Amino acid sequence: MVTNTTAKGLWKGAGIRRILCAMLSALMLMGVLVIGVGAETRIAYPASSTPTSVYLDGVRILDGDTVIWRDTTYVPLRKFCNLFDGCSFSWNQATGTATVRTDSGMTLIVTSGAYYIYANGHYFYTVEAVQNWSGSLYVPIRPLARAFTAELSWNTSLRATELSSPKGAPMVSWANYNADDLYWLSRIISAESRGEPLRGQIAVGNVVLNRVRSSSYPNTIYGVIFDRKHGTQFSPVSYGTIYKKPSESSVIAAKICLEGYSLSNRILFFMNPRISTTNWISKNRPYAFTIGNHEFYN
After folding, report:
1. What is the CATH number of domain 179-297?
2. How far is CA 27 from CA 32, 35, 100, in A?
3. Alpha-carbon dihedral angle through residues 18, 23, 27, 32, given to the nearest 10 degrees
4. What is the pLDDT of residues 213-258, one digit of tens each?
5. How far apart (Å, rounded) are the C-alpha atoms in residues 117 and 103?
6. Taking the domain 50-164, which CATH number applies?
7. What 3-state DSSP class applies to 242?
8. What Cα–Cα distance (Å) separates residue 105 from each residue in 193, 291, 294?
9. Quick one: pLDDT band at residue 18, thresholds 50, 70, 90?
């Protein structure tokens, strides 16, 4: 039997418990908010990623902040930039773009989902896309190292990336592409692969540059594009579309190629089998790979 006095005690105890539970819930909520806005935000990395390390001049850095995902080492943009120079950051929420300006005068532009970064007029291909994980931009390390002129190597035994501090200026100099090369390379890429993924546009540019380096073709970009030794080599020359203004992505692809990035140093031909008027390439040249609508051959 429960007396009135006992009932009052139980009611009072239950009230205290309710108050304590409410206070605990509030503290837990405050903890979540602190994690969300604090400097040490917890990053939700992809489940398939693995932690790795980065060493700068033999010292382990960015510990716990770097991962390997899709065979690519990713580092946090803000923390990486501050390793080499004083940096200011601005963020455009609408475009998902971070603009970084360093004390030494570099402008670095990085967009979530993009396959390149912009650094002082250069366009460096990232191979894998820039990622936004838990509100922080993560970038493949190799193009960032190029932007800050840091030497990079992979240490197999440590399964870690090793960086060496820049010996000169801690930033890449302003880009100075050959205007004639950029003009024609961007136009042939645009005319041949407008609407193709950036990777496919780069591959078209690689074909042209591989021919420039080959003794079987002219040794200039213009010469390769307008080569008629064995008939017209590129249909846009016949159709006149070579003279149209190139798309923005084609200009970027051309700059990436002129930076030296190549998917293959061997590809010399490509074709779209759905619209090609001849199958000579597929019958006579070794197949390499397919990107988008194009098949590439050595």
Report:
1. 1.10.10.2520
2. 9, 12, 36
3. 50
4. 999 999 999 999 999 877 678 999 999 999 999 999 999 999 999 9
5. 19
6. 3.30.457.10
7. helix
8. 35, 38, 40
9. low
pLDDT tens for 55-114 read: 999 999 998 899 999 999 999 999 999 999 899 999 999 999 999 999 999 999 999 999
Helices 198-213, 248-258: axis angle to 10 degrees equals 40
Look at the chain and count its residues.
298
User: In whole angstroms, how large is the CA radius of gyration of the chain?
Assistant: 27
Q: What is the pTM of this model?
A: 0.83
Same fold flag, 50-164 and 179-297: no
What value does the mean pLDDT take over residues 158-181?
94
Per DSSP, the three-state class of 208 is helix
pLDDT of residue 155: 96
The CB density around residue 27, as the number of other CB atoms within 10 Å, is 10
| Segments making up each domain of the chain, as ranges | 50-164, 179-297
Please name which of 178, 176, 116, 170 lies closest in space to residue 147, comparing C-alpha atoms: 170
Q: Strand 122-125 to strand 116-119: parallel, antiparallel, or no bridges (unpaired)? A: antiparallel
Asked if 54 and 161 count as a contact pair (C-beta separation under 8 A), the reply is: yes
